[in-house]
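Section 3.1 - Work completed
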Amino acid sequence: MRHLLLLNNLRVENANAISGMTWGFPAPTNFLGFTHALSRKCQAKWGNHASLGGVGIICHSHQVHTQQPSGFEHVFALSRNPLTKDGNTAPFNEEGRMHMTVSLLVDCEFDPLELVLGDEPAEQRIKQFEHQVLDWLVTQRLAGGIITSIGRVRYWQLNETDTNSQRAFRREMLRLIPGFVLLDRSDLLAEHHQAQKQQTPDTELLDSWLDFVALCYQSEAIGLEDGEAPVVGETKAEWKIQPKPGSGKGYLVPLAIGYQSISDLYEPGTVGRARDNTVPFRFVESAYSIGEWCSPHRLQAPEDLLWQYRYSDGAYVCEIPSQQVISASSEDESIEIPDNDFNSLDELY
């Protein structure tokens, strides 16, 4: 039995929109950190077995605080700090902020009915569990932003041994429309990097990642006769945007997914000015990958959207272990949408 907790329609104001070299939406690490903080509260109240696992990220709306002056790139709209005591302009650091409405699908590694919630009927105890989680949510921050409203906290379970479990899951995904799920597409980055290394053996992984991010132009000579060679400075050319790797395979975006070690693992207390001298210390740098925004109705199982931590070989990153996602580019795909057996729109949303 799979136990899931849906945090529906969290409206967040002034969330952090910058993650390393990327901007526009918080990194998956922000949402896993949010879930980890909620998990620690569950464990403090009900025991260590009451822990939360992976988290699925569904964005319904977002508004990044930027403006685009005429002829320039987007710049962040910053707030001005109060003047100093001398009447001078106070210095400030650039901050990227955004408003967003998201839903989070959290994997519960326990059965709420097994918690100490009283002797009431099962339905009443589930309500108590949902209300307790709701009380904790309003005290937390998400990606540095303030949660101003919460649509609903809803627990539901999925019987994975049932032959209709996939259909039941996809019915639940319909409730999240309109919205888009953030998926892990590191497989596309690995595939493109291997192809680049065959052409250029000294290609770095960063170069392959930049191919997904950079906007590249290439000139094509125009007005030439057959066999005529272009002349530098004289032949007219038309500049065209080069297609990115993975074009037609979905809405791909760059992601900051965690950290990669750049040093050995030092014993506790051996590095000065560390935040915590009781744990080992290691220097790291940001790690990046590729993500995809996908419609929820394309997903087949909870494993397709649940981000999880992975620690191995000096990597401290977030990933979706299962990347069996229906491609949005398949021309011959046939996606069966569950029958609309909801009695009303209120039951759907």
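Second construct:
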Amino acid sequence: MVSAVNEPLLDERLAALEEARAWSPRLISKLENHIRTADDLALFRINAFSFAQERSLAENEIIDLFLHATALGLFMMDWSLYCPQCCCVVESFRSLKGLHNHYHCAFCQVGFDAALDEYIAVAFTVSPDIRRIAFHDPEQLSAWDKFFKTQNTAEGVLPDGQPLVNAKAALARSVTYLPAGETTSIEIEVDEGTVVATCPAGRVALVISIAGAPASGPQVVPVAYGDDKANAHDVREMAPGKIVFALANKTSERGMFAIAVLPPGFDMSGAPVHFIPFLNGKRLLTTQAFRDLFRSEVIKAQEGIGVKDITLLFTDLKGSTALYDRIGDLNAFALVQRHFDLIQDVVVRHRGAIIKTIGDAVMATFLEPADAVAAALSMRNEIDVFNRTQADRALILKIGIHKGAAIAVTLNERLDYFGQTVNIAARVQQLADAEEIFVSEDVYSAEGVHALLASREVASSVSKLKGVQQDLRVFRVAKD
């Protein structure tokens, strides 16, 4: 049964969404239909890419759609950390500030470093003000639904296309709540394989190999939920037969306990899992709508959050000081602002985002090197066209591009990037002269870049960059 919709509020916010920007025909009505008719699970942690694919819609527009809808209160943003081995949701939170540098999977007993371009997923859940669904009250869910539908993700799939969580559910013998301060017991019969018992909170992790002759009677496994000594990964052997888990919750909070029996030879941690495409942290932070609509989002982690591969583009204007002298401060300022608008339009069209402006310079990020190179070529062309309408007011652009690992941080209450990759990108830009584009070798050798530059004059050289120990090979793309 579909829950009731707050009709006046839905109509009001959909009308505001319609006016937020130009949308493809019927896009808002498709979103409205989903809000009204989808079941509760389909309105919980919506994968923007899957939503787009199922309706043959453009990914970029759907990301913008959900971001605007979230800013208007139609949806809430969900951040989740996925375990790459077992596909559980290790942590979930409502904003970027909840993200940490490191996380630990209790089921796999493995720690990971957080990286924006890997297993940090961003999804969207309908607002309870618009339509209340069961997942707004997770503590009211059955233990089974809470564990498999909120603490696991269906986005990790096996080679046959089956979500790993479905395979885990098929192997599960029991998922139960542990009331605070109470004791209980769970009995299972096991003939062979491996018993895996765990608490999503990470306070218990048991692995029991079944081997040998059948046991003559019940085998009791005491489990002290809340005992710090139980945090260690407990591996033991037991005989086939009845196993009784004697559970004691020594805490003041309700716990959960899950038991699965894996067949002989089955290794959950070694399952060949891959993830269907999802909106990750890197893609979100490289979306201009996110940076425009959610300026208050900050990274609280003191060391920042890593991104393993980001493409950075820097621009600057040649002779801007002379421009101010020639046409006056007010005219020059207006001209430079118009140039910023042109650059942002180009950046957004090529799947990028403006990180900041520094004086007359721009720092932007892109998902792929080819996006950045295509944007650089477009910038140069559009500035050239713009200059034809500005007698004696020529804007002369210089561009540099580099890629690599960086750290996403909050600087001056704004999301920014830090690290040697950023430094090198800025230095590469400083090599460029009037209307030149310089790219590093890492960018030049990336997929799709050669094709973009095949018909252009490209010259290679080795440069010594300030603050960089090793010489860097760079490629100069001259103007046509």
